[in-house]
């Protein structure tokens, strides 16, 4: 089984560009309406034997309107839609702090912006997702997740840019490092 190491350069919206490391994503659109969305999936799904999977996203530039969604999606999810807006996707949104699943807002967390680090943990033992902001656990955002899932990020913010950490460097959320990730 291949491990997640970067974003999938061949599985993204045309509104996004990815740097040579495969970790930094920039939004190239105007972000003026709901059709100007760009999303990207990781280069591999989360391994089925994984009990706990965690990754972090650094907000390099929130862009003009801060519309950035961080979460998970299924392979069938339309990458021209925002993470969480459609069936088969779950996302935490920077502009308003909403946790959104299949178009439904379930909880409200803090918004996020430039310099923040958002962590996302999928626990397959109890099928829940929790998020962290700058190393602080925000609690369970979603329940009953199952199936083959990919880390996913969506952007609709002119000038927006993020960088992912799939575990190649130390996480800001220290508690996750005490537990095996895969």
TrEMBL record:
InterPro entries in UniProt: B30.2/SPRY, B30.2/SPRY_sf, ConA-like_dom_sf, SPRY_dom, Ubq-SigPath_Reg
Entry keyword set: Lectin
Pfam families the record matches: SPRY
UniProt keyword annotation of Isomerase present: no
Single GO term (MF): carbohydrate binding
Gene3D superfamilies on file: 2.60.120.920
Domain (B30.2/SPRY) ranges: 1-171
Domain of life per record: Eukaryota
Keyword Ribosomal protein: no
Database matches in PANTHER family: RAN BINDING PROTEIN 9-RELATED
Name of the protein in question: Concanavalin A-like lectin/glucanase domain-containing protein
């Amino acid at each position: 089984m291949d491990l997640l190491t970067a974003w999938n350069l061949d599985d993204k919206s045309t509104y996004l560009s990815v740097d040579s490391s495969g970790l930094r994503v920039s939004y190239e659109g105007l972000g003026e309406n709901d059709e100007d969305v760009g999303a990207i999936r990781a280069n591999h799904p989360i391994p089925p034997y994984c009990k706990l999977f965690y990754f972090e996203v650094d907000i390099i530039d929130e862009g003009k309107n801060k519309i950035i969604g961080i979460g998970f999606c299924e392979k069938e999810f339309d990458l021209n839609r925002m993470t969480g807006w459609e069936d088969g996707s779950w996302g935490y949104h920077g502009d308003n702090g909403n946790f959104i699943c299949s178009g439904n807002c379930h909880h409200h967390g803090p918004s996020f912006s430039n310099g923040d680090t958002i962590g996302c943990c999928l626990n397959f033992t109890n099928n829940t997702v929790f998020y962290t902001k700058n190393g602080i656990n925000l609690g369970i955002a979603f329940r009953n997740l199952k199936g083959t899932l990919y880390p996913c990020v969506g952007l609709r913010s002119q000038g927006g840019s993020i960088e992912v950490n799939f575990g190649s460097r130390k996480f800001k959320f220290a508690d996750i490092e005490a537990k095996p990730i895969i």
